[in-house]
Amino acid sequence: xxxxxxxxxxxxxxxxxxxxxxxxxxxxxxxxxxxxxxxxxxxxxxxxxxxxxxxxxxxxxxxxxxxxxxxxxxxxxxxxxxxxxxxxxxxxxxxxxxxxxxxxxxxxxxxxxxxxxxxx
Amino acid sequence: xxxxxxxxxxxxxxxxxxxxxxxxxxxxxxxxxxxxxxxxxxxxxxxxxxxxxxxxxxxxxxxxxxxxxxxxxxxxxxxxxxxxxxxxxxxxxxxxxxxxxxxxxxxxxxxxxxxxxxxxxxxxxxxxxxxxxxxxxxxxxxxxxxxxxxxxxxxxxxxxxxxxxxxxxxxxxxxxxxxxxxxxxxxxxxxxxxxxxxxxxxxxxxxxxxxxxxxxxxxxxxxxxxxxx
Lengths: 120, 229
What we know:
The complex is a heterodimer. Chain A is built from five helices and two strands.
């Protein structure tokens, strides 16, 4: 039987352990937000549990949405696409930029430089 | 590095980044490679040494949840796992700052469960709210049940928050005393020693009895010899 890091008792919820994420780490992340003084235990539990739901939600949406159906693999670009297309995941677009080939980057860089040159 | 930068030009220009946005260009500096080790080994006590965005949940836990979410035969790319790890930290910060704002508006200092649930429905995660309420209920019942049993901890993270009350129940001291006759009285106590109330018959504390024995006096024998005479 695999033990999860928070080590919850089995008898708490029957067959499945309630939480599989380390609560102390979640609290650390929460406290790194500005102006957060203290966090109620309920709030901590809810956030941890919600994070679990979020991971499932994001993974499944991205898998179904993207190329996963053909390749049967969840890739980074699936996640990036889902973040852009799904309203709920819009807040992730900053940290999930889409990949472009370096050649395309170089081309647009040249374009930008030309534009800058035209301004002067 | 998964070789997306397929042209040699990239290396000539010294570009090491893999992920580039269409509107702005994100180049990953080399130092970020070290962050992967920091994520899982950070001890939390020296939080100031890490940038805010470096604190992540362990990738093994995240990967396990992802694996359970996608169909059985599905696979997950390594960069997808790392990426979700970052998304998770972003999500937690997102919810927390919204909840914190509401808390401040209502002039409270502690973020409670209601704030979190409210933040979630505000931010478009209202589909989580109902399942979360159920889980919270189950969790509370579990906590009550386990607190009833003396000294059982619920989880390593939570036990930090639990008060120490459940651990300080002193075990009852077993006291065997006589009822005031001229006999020695041996008082037996456990390690949680409670000083016995003084008895008219003269209770001898554990220490005293031991002292007497140590000097070669066995109180029991002493009295019985007297009786024989």
